[in-house]
Amino acid sequence: MLRKGLGYFSRYFSLILLVAIWQGVCSAGLISSHVLASPLAVVRTAETLVRDGTLPKNLVVSLVRAASGLSLAVIIGVVLALVSGLSRMGEEVVDGPMQIFRTLPALALVPLFILWFGIGETPKILLVAFGAAFPIYLNLHKGIRGVDVRLLEMGKTLGLSHSKVVRDIILPSALPDFIVGLRFAVGISWLMLVVAEQVNAESGIGHMMMDAEDFLRTDVILVGLAVYGFLGLMSDQIVRYIERFFLIWSLDKNREVS
Questions:
Q1: Which of 14, 152, 153, 240 has a Cα at 20 to 30 A from 232?
Q2: 204-221, pLDDT tens digit by residue?
Q3: How far apart are CA 148 and CA 184, in angstroms?
Q4: Considering the entire predicted model, what is its pTM?
Q5: Are 119 and 200 in contact (CB under 8 A)?
């Protein structure tokens, strides 16, 4: 038990040391608060933002945008991956444009999205969906194309129809790759949200950080960064829980091998 406790401490020792050095440098006046707020100042600011409702209100807005964009990305990515992965003609039609679009920088698309969809919630959600759809598409497409040929031959031997082969063999085999793509998509959705909320936004964590920049409030900016990091960590944990739930057979197999 003691060794386990020491293991956890050693894992976070470097982080604790870094925060302590950060606080010491700020307390000694070596760095101005306009350049970098101290950890204690960040904690106090976070408490103030929670008490006056600023942080919860903006957090809810950001969560809705991220969830809406990610949901749309899952639908788009899955549909396109199925079309491209299950048909040679579909791959010729879909895969080329997807490979082109995934290289486009998000910031370059912001003016077009504003021009096409206005300055409301629609362009922000679509920006999140645009960035998050590609890892889902790429990984699911890889999973579909990478199904063991012997399994497909076995399905034909058993007389399974094409729809049953897709349902009972291809999709379960591609599910691990889909989960990997979903984990990447969750992380990208938060990155895209940062971009979306800093352009013509009137609410959200990104908007709160942009307002803080105008007043040189590095403490508020760091609170926003901490919130983004926490949300990214929690959302990844949720996806990992989904992975354990749906891929329990794969995890058990890996344990047996190890």
A1: 14
A2: 888 888 888 878 888 899
A3: 24
A4: 0.81
A5: yes
